[in-house]
Amino acid sequence: MEIFGVAYQKLNSDDLNRDVTLETYILENITNIPMILTDAEGNVIYNRNLGYKKEKDSLYLQKRLSEMKMHNKPIVVDYQGELKQYVYYSNSNIITKLKYFPLGLLLVLILFALALYLYTRNNRIAAQNKLWTGMAKETAHQIGTPLTSLMGWTTLLKDDEQTKATGIEMEKDVKRLEVIANRFSKIGSTPTLYHKDLIAFTNESMLYFKSRASNQVSFKLKASADVIMAHFNPELYGWVLENLIKNALDAMQGKGSITIEMDEDDKKAIIKISDTGKGIPKAQHKTIFNPGFTTRQRGWGLGLSLSKRIINDFHGGQIFVLHSEVNKGTCFQINLPKR
Fold first, then answer.
1. DSSP reduced 3-state for 336
2. Structural domain that includes position 324
3. First to last CA, the chain
4. Distance separating alpha carbons of residues 66 and 60, to the nearest angstrom
5. pTM of the entire structure?
6. 197 neighbors 188 (Cβ within 8 angstroms)
7. Is residue 185 part of a domain?
8. Quick one: pLDDT band at residue 337, thresholds 50, 70, 90?
């Protein structure tokens, strides 16, 4: 802008024979810096680069002049000490944008660093998950050998009349261990869903826990129909039932009742599992599904979190606390798609 002021002063000098090619070139090619020229009294004499329509708006010119006075010191154009004019100006759009360039660059660097961190973190988590999946599958494989042996021993026990009843119960436990081993072997794999009778499977699972629970705990199953077909994976659905029933038994401390109600509509099968235990405070109805949440000293806090993943992610259903009251009991509801 100082160059502009000097060029303007030279161009208006009293030396009419002087070559003003350079000054004229400078004045004509400064096209990106808004400027206003005033006399000593502050009257606008000339303006540049404010926009064709706005150059004729006196109110707009005065407003811009006030802004320029606040931001930049004017360039004084002195004509041999007899006449003074002032060039007011503001920064060009390029300079204004350059002010934000370091901030934009910093933002880009932060985003790049964040993307790099997330990529590294996800790779590390993926590697850890792969390791745990491999360990789970290997554990299931190792359990398979003694299970085969135990099945042979239970067969021998069932052949003897004196130990037949014991052999039958042991066989149920061994089959249960097979189910657990199969769960571990399928970790990391996409489960297969089957169209099966939900009532029969639920009743079988309930009877298994009934035979191993306290005599002071009653089990009931109520269904709106003899058969309710649904799309589910028996091993994974059984895992959810196991978690809910075990939690109910712990909440009742060996005394009370567990009721399973089953119903259906056009799109889904509905399973409600109620207990008469200590209940869940309303503030915890959603947090109980978070990994690590537990009210037991020896609990891992994974049962309900795993159950939610099985129902929501693998089956496309829902699991939630339908209602609960402290010292009276809790009811969980599971919705499973029928197709």
1. strand
2. 190-337
3. 76
4. 10
5. 0.57
6. no
7. no
8. very high
Q: How far apart are CA 224 and CA 198, in angstroms?
A: 12
Please state the length of the chain.
339
- Measured on CA atoms in the order 250, 251, 254, 259, is the torsion positive or negative? negative
Tell which of 135, 156, 180 closes a domain: 180
Tell me if 268 sits within 8 A of 337, measured CB to CB.
yes
My answer on whether 145 and 254 are in the same domain is: no
Residue 214 maps to a domain = yes
In a domain, residue 11? The reply is yes
Half-sphere exposure of 111 toward its Cβ, with a 13 Å CA cutoff?
Answer: 6
Residues 112 and 64 in one domain: no
For the ranges 130-134, 154-158, 267-271, 300-304, the one whose mean pLDDT is highest? 267-271
CA atoms within 13 A on the CB side of 315: 29
| Joined tokens for residue 91 | 């920064």
Do 236 and 167 sit in the same domain of this protein?
Answer: no
- In sequence order, what are the residues at sequence separation of 6 or more whose Cβ sits closer than 8 angstroms to the Cβ of residue 58? 44
What pLDDT does 1 receive?
A: 52
57 secondary structure, DSSP code: -
Residue 52 tokens, joined: 């064709």
Helix (H) or strand (E) holding 143: helix 93-159
pLDDT at position 187: 67
CA–CA dist 144, 155 (Å, integer): 17
Residue ending a domain, among 33, 57, 91, is 91
Q: Check if the beta carbon of residue 237 is closer than 8 Å to that of residue 319.
A: no
Interval 74-94 mean pLDDT: 73
Residues 252, 314 within the same domain: yes
- Domain at 268, CATH number: 3.30.565.10
Q: Is the separation of the CB atoms in 220 and 258 below 8 Å?
A: yes
- Decide: 184 and 140 in contact? Cβ < 8 Å: yes
